[in-house]
Specification:
The complex is a heterodimer. Chain A is α+β, with helices and mostly antiparallel strands. Chain B is built from 6 helices and 5 strands, in the order ββαβββααααα. Classes of the chains: A alpha+beta, B alpha+beta. Chains A and B meet through α1, α3 and α15 of A and α1, α2, α3, α4 and α5 of B.
Chain lengths: 734, 169
């Protein structure tokens, strides 16, 4: 189905099932421990052997020699795979660094071997006996040092590293009120709870991988490319994924090493990447240095806005696109953005939840707070004065929907924003300095082709099959809701099967594009199935109603299952998009509000209240949408207060590479969180009229905290995370 | 190798194990009870929480052979999809999870936390050690802090536990 004109009324608008707070259909499996994650397919492979990964002990250089003799002689060892004996390996389209290093080493903890043994304990013990002799080379590990030498990265289509509109330098120089500030965001880790894990089994030259992956089609292709197999010979199965956040968008070494190990051992092999390896072996969100310049008139109108960002990556890696939101979020006639990329020999930088906007908003929304203060304006009023209903770089291009101002105003009222004292450091409650902060939320809505297959059986049950994944986002449930709404069934009559490369290719999970696109693909398949059913039952398909398990037209009504009485009916289709995203800018908007206390003596920060107001198209399931947003808010608290991969700049690795050293928020850090979704439908986005929400919830949160800390203490910290040491010396007198 | 036998979810299980096998791997790899999750294998995340003799522990931090004769309860022992434990049902109702990987550990911990408070065991945030701790939001969050949820379901988890404890959220 081609979606190239704005959606009109369709069966989804009945909202019998869509739009209702619905408990997850996979909830009973997950809460009772019956959902099967990648490492848990006991019935699938016969007696799998265990693989244990050996990671490089240097960040850059070469392997001179590997001595496997002691490891091979260890009890239970079946085989050991290294680059030397793995055969020729390609590199996946979505990988920057090789997944099995040697002889060249590209980054610390790059896999250099997998030891396969009868038991996990034997594999782990033998892995310690692998003797690798390295010759280390000098590498670059310091983004700040690499900043001056950073280059302009190549552009990709509409995405160019430099943008210029009007005359930024002159307008900025002439502006009566100016801000020129530099902010930094650190390297961050996805740190999803389920480690990267895979089980591989070969049948001749056909490979089955039970794995944990967000993008089944990308990864199937990359497995094939890496191993030199035809794509048809690779089957991926990933129905449950223990978190991804972008870290499982791509093929990673657990899957390739399981496949190579299984080939060498001649039996199924499973590999779970050990937690301490994950932070350096896999991808991370790259650190940024961001310079923001804003010029405004005394009326509070922005006349010039400029945003430059520096990040680093391995050769062939991409920059962190932290300036993205600045191209669209606020008005201003004169504008510029620039991305620069330094070559670093740290592990591969890549997408983490809301790549670009998450770190970009961390900086921009502090800058907006600073600018509001210079203008003596309330931060909400300043943002509202610079609202734009058109793409500010292309003013003939309207936003499809843009309720930023409404989000801020409704949030302000709900949160009690008027109680905020504009003068910082003035509200004291016992040992706490109390502050309020806010930030805008912004993230683009992306359209991706997405397919699905639907089957109707004679019992009137509809089964949906698509390679879409559920990484905690609620895909199972919203897909079931979509099919139920379309086919006029209760939720219990829909079965959803996901995450299998033998199913039609979907948008997958990433970039907050999963929900809108995958359900639209299911919508398209259901439209086809409705036609098939109507035809089969001898209805004129134009005026047939599907509801309560019945198909009716005029005064004739037939049970849906009857259409399949002489055999299952099957329909398959995809949603494909026309030009609507070109003619209209599609984005999602919101506002974040935070109240926190800072201990006057210790500078300990405690978050007290949080609210997010979101305008992101139709909310398909308010229950799972709320979860997406509160989860993102929680990740935003981590970004603001604690998350930082500490770089050892001499030897080139992330030092705090486990869950004890890389701190993420725990229960004690997170108060009750409130969310509000504005009533919105976006007919430009899809027949579902929905947009993404899972990343919107993250964009701006950290800045709202930073602004609240400033409001509490009068201390402006521009380098994340805002840890106590950055406040202590500057705390106001107790 | 050594033999060990313990009771898991009401059933006596005898195993012959490499002495280095953790209780977690005994459950997952040998008994195929994979509801108990391995998030870190280092006592840093809580995904492997089970109860042994009614007390919650990180099963990755203890060797299986140390549990001769013990009674272990895992998430599978609390309830089934058809007959969920009240805590499991409350997690579903309040959407106290997303990816579900930390969830068995959260639920086992939550059940044990309520017992600990009932038994009068104080925590770091208990103000007065001479008074029985109450089930406040602060107590609950403090006691649950060994169970990381990267999906960030904490606010909903707190509501689920509070409902089971019988105190309005
Ligand atoms: S797996 Fe035991 S605490 Fe993480
Ligand atoms: S539900 Fe995913 S980590 Fe808690």
């Amino acid at each position: 189905m081609k979606f190239d004109t704005p959606a009109t009324t369709n069966p989804i608008d009945q909202l019998k099932i869509i739009g209702h707070a619905t408990s997850r259909i996979d909830g009973p499996l997950k809460t009772t421990g019956r959902a099967t994650y990648a490492y848990e397919w006991h019935d699938a492979g016969s007696r799998p052997a265990y693989g244990y990964i050996v990671g490089s002990a240097i960040a850059k250089g070469r392997i001179v020699s590997i001595d496997l003799s002691r490891a091979k002689a260890a009890p239970g060892v079946i085989s050991i795979v290294t680059a030397e004996n793995a055969g020729k390996l390609g590199k996946g389209n979505y990988n920057t660094a090789k997944l099995l290093g040697g002889p060249e080493i590209d980054h610390y903890h790059q896999a250099v071997a997998v030891v396969v043994a009868e038991t996990f304990e034997q594999a782990r013990a033998a892995a310690q006996l692998v003797q690798v002799n390295y010759s280390a080379a000098k590498g670059s590990f310091d983004l700040a040092a690499g900043r001056d030498g950073a280059a302009k990265p190549p552009g990709r289509g509409d995405d160019q590293p430099d943008t210029n509109v009007g005359d930024f330098p002159s307008a900025f120089a002439a502006a009566p009120v100016q801000l020129d500030a530099t902010y930094t965001t650190p390297d961050q880790a996805h740190a999803m709870m389920e480690p990267h894990a895979s089980m591989a089994a070969w049948d001749g030259d056909k490979l089955t991988l039970w794995t944990s992956n967000q993008m089944i089609a990308w990864t199937t292709g990359d497995v094939a490319k890496t191993l030199g197999l035809p794509k048809e010979n690779v089957r991926l199965i990933s129905p449950f994924i223990g978190g991804g956040f972008g870290g499982k968008l791509f093929l990673r070494s657990d899957a390739i090493l399981a496949a190579l190990g299984a080939r060498a051992a001649n039996r199924p092999v499973k590999v779970a990447m050990q937690r301490p390896l994950m932070f350096n072996n896999t991808t991370h969100r790259p650190a940024t240095i961001q310079r923001i310049r804003i010029g405004a008139g005394r009326d509070g109108k922005i006349t010039a806005i400029g945003h430059e960002s520096w990040s680093g990556n391995l050769p062939e890696g991409r920059p962190e696109t932290a300036v993205q939101q600045t191209r669209l979020l606020y008005a201003g006639e004169n504008r510029m953005t620039a991305l620069r990329l330094a070559m670093l020999d740290l592990p591969e930088g890549n997408a983490m939840r809301a790549p670009g906007e998450a770190p970009g908003m961390m900086a921009l929304e502090i800058a907006m707070d600073e600018m509001a203060e210079r203008l003596n304006l309330d931060p909400i009023e300043f943002r509202a004065r610079n609202d734009t209903q058109v793409d500010p770089e292309h003013t003939n291009r309207p936003f499809s929907q843009r309720q930023l101002v409404a989000c801020m105003k409704i949030g302000a009222e709900r949160f009690g924003w008027s109680a905020r004292n504009a003068e910082p450091g003035k509200r004291r409650e016992g040992r706490w300095l109390v502050g309020l902060g806010m930030a805008a939320a912004f993230r683009n809505n992306l359209l991706m082709k997405s397919g699905a297959r639907v089957r109707l059986d004679r019992s009137g049950t509809v089964t949906v099959e698509t390679d879409m994944t559920d990484i905690g986002t609620g895909s199972y449930t919203i897909i079931a809701q979509t099919a139920a709404e379309m086919m006029g069934l209760p939720l219990e009559k829909v079965v959803v099967r996901l995450g299998d490369s033998s199913f039609p290719v979907s948008a997958g999970s990433g970039g907050q594009f999963g929900a809108n696109n995958s359900t639209s693909g299911v919508y398209a398949a259901c439209v086809k199935l409705r036609e098939t059913v109507a035809q089969k039952l001898g209805f004129n398909s134009a005026d047939v109603a599907f509801s309560d398990g019945q198909v009716s037209s005029g005064n004739r009504s037939v049970p849906l299952g009857q259409a399949a009485s002489d055999g299952e009916l099957l329909a398959e289709d995809s949603i494909e998009y026309g030009d609507l995203a070109k003619t209209h800018q599609q984005s999602t908007f919101g506002a974040h509000f935070v109240e926190l206390g800072v201990d006057v003596a210790t500078a300990e920060i405690r978050v007290r209240r949080m609210l997010a107001v979101c305008a992101a198209g139709r909310v398909l399931n308010p229950k799972t949408a709320r979860s997406q947003v509160i989860g993102a808010m929680t990740m935003g608290v981590g970004a603001a207060l604690m998350e930082e991969l500490a770089v050892d700049k001499r030897t080139g690795f992330f030092v705090n590479h486990d869950l004890a050293g890389y701190e993420v928020p725990v229960h004690a850090d997170i108060p009750h969180q409130d969310t509000i979704f504005l009533d919105e439908t976006d007919p430009m986005s899809s027949p579902m009229k929905a947009k993404g929400i899972g990343e919107l919830g993250l964009c701006g949160v950290a800045a709202a905290l930073a602004n609240a800390i400033y409001n509490a203490t009068g201390i402006r910290v521009r380098d994340y995370p805002i840890t106590l040491d950055k406040l202590l010396q500057r705390m106001p007198d107790a | 190798m050594a033999t060990v036998s313990f009771n898991v979810n009401g059933e006596v299980r005898a195993l012959k194990l490499d002495t280095r096998t953790t209780l977690l791997d005994a459950l997952r790899e040998h008994l195929h009870l994979t509801g108990t999750k391995k998030g870190c294998d280092h006592g840093q995340c809580g995904a492997c929480t089970v109860t042994v003799g009614g007390q919650r522990i990180n099963s990755c931090l203890t060797l299986a052979v140390m549990h001769e004769g013990d009674s272990v309860t895992t998430i599978e022992g609390l309830g089934t999809p058809e007959h969920m434990h009240p805590m499991q049902a409350a997690f579903v109702k309040h959407d106290g999870f997303q990816c579900g990987y930390c969830t068995p550990g959260q639920i086992c911990s939550a059940v044990a936390v309520l017992d600990e408070i009932k038994a009068g065991i104080p925590s770091h945030v208990t103000g007065d050690l001479n008074v029985a701790p109450e089930l406040t939001n602060a107590e609950l969050r403090e006691r649950m802090s060994g169970n990381i949820c990267r999906c960030g379901a904490y606010s909903n988890i707190a509501e689920a536990i509070t409902e089971v404890a019988g105190r309005p959220a």
